[in-house]
Amino acid sequence: MEFAIFIALLIVLALIVMGLYNGLVGARNRAEEAWSQIDVQLKRRHDLIPNLVETAKGYMKHEREVFEQVARARQQAIQISGGADVQKRAQAENVLTGALRQLFAVAEAYPDLKANQNMLALQEELTSTENKISFARQHYNDSVLELNNRIQKMPTNLIASAFNFHERPFFELEEPSERQPVQVKF
Amino acid sequence: MLLSQQIATNRRNTYLLVALISLLLLALGAALGLFWNSPGSGIGIAILAAFFLGTFSYYQGDQLILRYSHARQIAKHDNPQLFNVVEEMAIAAGLPLPQIYLIEDEAPNAFATGRDPEHASLAITTGLLKKLNRDQLQGVMAHELSHVQDRDILYTMMVGVLAGSIVLLSDYVTRYLFWTGGGSLRRRGNRERSQANALLMALGLVLIILAPLIARLVQLAVSRQREYLADASAAKLTRYPEGLASALELIANDSHELRVANRATAHLYVVNPFRNRKLAERNSVFDTHPPLKERIRRLRELR
């Protein structure tokens, strides 16, 4: 009889551990999925830039410096995107965001460029990609918060340390002024 | 309420709804069977009907609703900005990109339907697209995706299809009993039997009258709280409550009536398609949606 109770308790305990473990795995997978979404959108932005530069160059012949700045920032961001260091990537992407903003600010002075259909379409795509990056970041940070909460809180923290679950870093932007997605206006 | 709790509640409500509708069908079938003098066949038909109706509503309900609303599917190149806005919100909510449908109608409105986020559809009227700017559109799309996220779409789809078909069915049965009822009772010789039949027929009639009422009540039970909730989740997704608030304001001031909506689909829409401006100000128990003024006020308080 006592043995049966003991076994029943063991089973209940195992079920609880299993539930907590599965919860952790779910949270980790959600965070990873959210991260891959950021990845997709950052890559999309890298891919859009050559198009944008190509279209704008025809109109802005005397703005070499701006284009070089964008190209450099893009190159830098692509290089760093191979590694897994979240902080460094965020920094490089911030530089790229700044360079793009500069480009759009300069483009303000070219009315022909503003009317170009291709440019308008690119502008919508880029604005949307910026938005997607910031929404993906928002979702990633929410997922990371949930994961980290689980890893730190009792009693899940015992299981997390037993099975080697690690906290993930947030994807942060440095300056508060850069928390807003870029508003591209012509 | 936590998201997982909302999802669980919607699933449970869906089971309850299907059970309730099945019971209703069984009772109708039994009443009809007794009227035919063979309760078994009535119940058998009812079980089959419940099974097929349930399966059909679950897998094909969204298509039925979309077709019923004259919605036509569009691809990204038809409207890149709309797709971008929806995609942005799907990313913010961590959901797959839903299918997007357009409804040719001047009345600004939208709804979401489908059995789960992997099989979700958004329908937007051309009037909505015309009137809203990007931020406002984003607010409305976030509202719809919140319905997708917490599985409101499953429950409201089942309510729409099941309640709609119960109303239709009881219409048929009422007509059937009305036209054939008196005659077949008179033909029967056995007095006791005809007495029993009359009793059962009365019961059947009560059921038939109750059915649409029950269906309507189920439909009413769904909407108000979940609209407030979806508004709040939308604000959380966009981090900009003013977008949705000003969109609702624009919609409130619009005088077009949505032609394609009917009683079975009204509860799906972001704003009540049958709003009569005077009635809309009253917080009546029989409204499927909370008053717009109140929704706008709550959104603006979030800031």
Task: Note the main attributes of this structure.
heterodimer; A: 186 residues; mainly alpha; de novo design (two linked rop proteins); rod-shaped; B: 303 residues; alpha+beta; Zincin-like; four-stranded mixed sheet; 10 helices; 4 strands; 69% helix
**Helix percentage range of chain B:** 55-70%
* N-end to C-end Cα span of chain A: 80 Å
User: Which range does the strand content of chain B fall in?
Assistant: 5-15%
**CATH class categorisation of chain A:** Mainly Alpha
Query: CATH superfamily of chain A, called what?
Result: LemA-like domain
Computed Rg of chain A: 23 Å
How much helix is in the residues of chain A? over 70%
Report the average pLDDT across residues of chain B.
81
Which helices and strands, and how do they pair?
The complex is a heterodimer of chains A (186) and B (303).
Chain A: H1 2-57, H2 64-80, H3 86-107, H4 111-115, H5 117-152, H6 156-162
Helix pairs in contact in A: 1-2, 1-5, 2-3
Chain B: H1 3-35, H2 39-68, E1 71-73, H3 80-93, E2 99-103, E3 110-114, E4 120-125, H4 126-131, H5 134-149, H6 152-187, H7 191-238, H8 241-252, H9 277-281, H10 292-301
Parallel strand pairs in B: 2-4
Antiparallel strand pairs in B: 1-2, 3-4
Helix pairs in contact in B: 1-2, 1-6, 1-7, 2-6, 3-5, 5-7, 5-8, 6-7, 7-8, 8-10
Please give a structural write-up:
The complex is a heterodimer of chains A (186) and B (303). The termini of chain A are far apart. By secondary structure, chain A is mainly α. The longest helix of chain A is centred in the first third of the chain and has 56 residues, at 2-57. In chain A, helix 1 packs antiparallel against helix 2 (64-80). Helix content of chain A is 77%, strand content 0%. Chain A has helices at residues 2-57, 64-80, 86-107, 111-115, 117-152, 156-162. Chain A has six helices and no strands. Chain A has one domain (19-179): de novo design (two linked rop proteins) (Up-down Bundle). Chain B folds into two domains: 3-65 and 158-218, no CATH class; 68-153 and 221-301, Metalloproteases ("zincins"), catalytic domain (Zincin-like). In chain B, 69% of the residues lie in helices and 6% in strands. Chain B is built from ten helices and four strands. Chain B has helices at 3-35, 39-68, 80-93, 126-131, 134-149, 152-187, 191-238, 241-252, 277-281, 292-301, and strands spanning 71-73, 99-103, 110-114, 120-125. In chain B, strands 1-2-4-3 form a four-stranded mixed β-sheet, with helices on both faces. In chain B, strand 3 (110-114) and strand 4 form a beta hairpin. Chain B is elongated and about 70 Å long. Chains A and B meet through helix 1 and helix 5 of A and helix 3 of B.
